[in-house]
Target: Redox-sensing transcriptional repressor Rex
Amino acid sequence: MAQRGQSDAAGRSRRAPAENAAEITTPMPAIGGNGLRDRARAIPEAAVARLAVYLRVLSGMREQGVGSVSSEELSVAAGVNSAKLRKDLSYIGSYGTRGVGYEVEVLVDQIERVLGLTREQSVAVVGIGNLGHALANYGGFPGRGFPVTALFDVDPDLMGVPVGGIPVAHIDDIPSVCAAREVTIGVIATPPPAAQAVCDRLVEAGVECILNFAPVVLQVPETVEVRKVDLAVELQILSFHVARRADHAPAEDATPAQRVNGVANPNGVAVRR
Model:
C-alpha cells in the first residue's frame, strides 16, 4: 500500500516553439489507444491542471463564436504566461501558425481527447451531508462530462431519498451499484474517521480515481489516483498571504511631523518665519 496524494507525472516533450513562433493548430492526426495513453502519461501533473483551465476558457470562447485565438489572448484569459501556455500545448501536439492563432475548435478537441473527456465519467458521491448534497445538486458536472450517478450514506433516514434526482443507497451497496452504473470516479465527502473505510470500499468496487474532501491522507494501492481538496488548508494559505501583506504594509508614523505655516517639519522643531 502506498500513501498518495497528488501524483507527479514525469516525461519529455518536444521542444516548444520560440516566443515569436507561429500559432495555428492543424488537425491532430488520429492516435490509437496506446499512442494517446503514451502522450497523456508524458504530460506533467501541473500541466494537466492548466490544460483543464485552458479547456474551460476555450469552451467559453467557442460558445461565443470565436474561431481562433492567439497564445497571448489565451494566456491572459487563463492567467498564465504565453511561453508556459505554448509549452503546455506542445505536449498535446499543438504548435500553431504565426499571425493566425490557435483554432479554438481543434484545440478543444485535442485537449478533451488527452484529458479523457471524449466519454462521460460516471461519478459516485459518498457522504450526503451538507457538502454531499451540494455536490449531488450541482448542475455543472453533467455538462462537463461528469454525471453524478450514485449516492451513498449510512443514515437510515436518507435511504431511498432522492437527492438531485438520485436515490441514496447504503455504503454496503457500493460494490454492486458502482459496477452496475460503471462508476469511474468516487467522491468522498464523509467525516474524517469514515473516509478510509469508504475509500477501501470504492477501491474494492474497482474505482481507481478518488476525489477526497475529508482532511485525512488515504492509504491506497499504487494503481489508484487520489486528489485531495482541503478547504481549511486553502483558507490557511490565504490567511498567510493576508498576514504577509499586513507585515509589509507601510507603518503609520506614531509622531507625525508638525506643520508650520503649511511646511512639514520632520524633526518636530518649530520653524519660525
Observations:
- Residues 213 and 231 are 8 Å apart (CA to CA).
- The chain has a mean pLDDT of 81.
- Residues 122-229 form a domain with the Rossmann fold fold (CATH 3.40.50.720).
